[in-house]
Amino acid sequence: MRVLIWAYMAAAYAFIFLPVLVLVVFSFQDGRLPVPPFQGFTLRWYGSVLGNAKLMSALGNSLLVAVVSSSLALILGFLAAHALARVRLPGSVLLRGLLIAPMTVSYLIIALGLLTVFNQTGVRLSLWTAGIGHVVINLPLCFAITYAAMGDQQRSAERAARDLGASDWQVLVHVSAPMLAPALAAAFFLSVTFSWDEFIIAFLLTRFDVTLPVEIWSMLRSGLSPATNAVGALVFLVSTALVVVLELTLFRKAKP
Amino acid sequence: MTLATRERRLGWGLMAPALAWTLAFFVLPFAAMVALSFAHMDGRSIVRGFDPGNYIRFFTDWTLFKALVNSLEITAVVTVVSLVLAYPLAAIIAFRVPARWQRLALLLAVLPFWTSYVVRSYSWLLVLGQNGVVNKALLWAGVIAEPLALSASRTATVIGFVHFFVMLLTLTIYANLIQLSPNYARAAQDLGAGRIATFWHVILPLTLPGVVTGAFLTFVLCIGDYITPQILGGNTELTLPQLIMLQLGRSGNFPLASALSVVLMAVVTLAYAASARWLRLDRL
């Protein structure tokens, strides 16, 4: 029984890591195709990727869209969560449902809806329109995470601050936000990861300047290449580093 | 002005930006898309009106309807297989791995989750392709004489999906298992239940909300995904999202694409209604 259990675990990890391993190994392939046999070690694909102006500008675009759209989603979500957690508004269940709703809708449908409206109103597609879409998908996430983190202890602190003469804005900026810092940071970084990796909205709502997933997508059209492996390995490296840093700092502290 | 009115005014003020954003960029576009689904194409121009023709065409034209059937079949298989594979893994991590190693084990189990989604499907192409790792290994070992046609098939699509959702489900199921008090299992065993009976009658029912929530997420994300079937499935059969993208790209048939999206949305809503009793979306 015990052997079976560890064998299952090993098999599961092998399955989970197999594609990543193949991706990374053949990014060093000294040959034209990223498939066996392994023909020798080279770093030239990484060189060609880092020297590829289109890829690098797509990477910059992705970062820009991710940070700007996540910041906006976080601010909107935090304010709404604060309103629903603190003030008794009529129809608050309905409001909450409405704000969460985009989470249950396929990204493709959100993208197509926005594309329809942008086409009809003559809005030109750009990084901005993709960013708008990313705020739509990340707003529910930011709202839900911050809403779930607002507890009684915080309510008392806010009341105390107000009794001592703080204005609504002062309470929000100097009491609520700092107390919620771990939840706010978690919501922000999750949003950044989602936006950074999002394909279909960015694909349908951008035109000339594109984000990294869209650029990688167009690389795929020209078939298998170790250069694509190198891009993938680099993205994996960056995301992994980010996750490990988050794990070691934020989430460890957030745990009681 | 009373305190209550002031509070309420403040509440609406804080609420307004998020509400306006959701209405303008989610509700309105969705309504516009539904309206467009009742238009039709005349040559290359869109004729607006109330014409259910797109829906009639979808339900009567097998080449279109087949896409929904394909999507449902793939999604059903992916959801079941992912659950069956992920549950034991989550249970092993929660109950067998020493407490101090659990977070590391979990972090490792979902690490490839954070790689680029597009790249992940591409990686499976390298593993399953004609000259891929699996075929080369099997040929080398003498198990097969000719390379297997693994990629560009439904099997490849399913494997790519299962890989992604095993990670997602391991996370959600683990989160559920770890919250269970060990007293449940202890009580069941004190009362004479064996290991299997304890699992089947106590642990599994207690984790059912988490399992259903994970299954629902898998269903929604899987049936709406375009990338995995497009990269791994080849062109032998189309899923619903692929059909939608095809309408947008090749023929610019926005009305039909909209109608297909409304169908996709309806399927997801049905799945939600079916599982709503057990869903705990707020407790993810």
TrEMBL record, chain A:
Similarity section: Belongs to the binding-protein-dependent transport system permease family. CysTW subfamily.
Keyword Transport: yes
This protein's name: ABC transporter permease
Positions of the ABC transmembrane type-1 domain: 59-246
Membrane topology: Multi-pass membrane protein
SUPFAM superfamilies reported in the protein's UniProt record: MetI-like
Alphabetized InterPro entries for the sequence: Bact_Polyamine_Transport, MetI-like, MetI-like_sf
Segments passing through the bilayer: 7-28, 58-81, 93-115, 127-150, 171-196, 230-251
Keywords from the UniProt entry: Cell membrane, Membrane, Transmembrane, Transmembrane helix, Transport
Compartments reported by the entry: Cell membrane
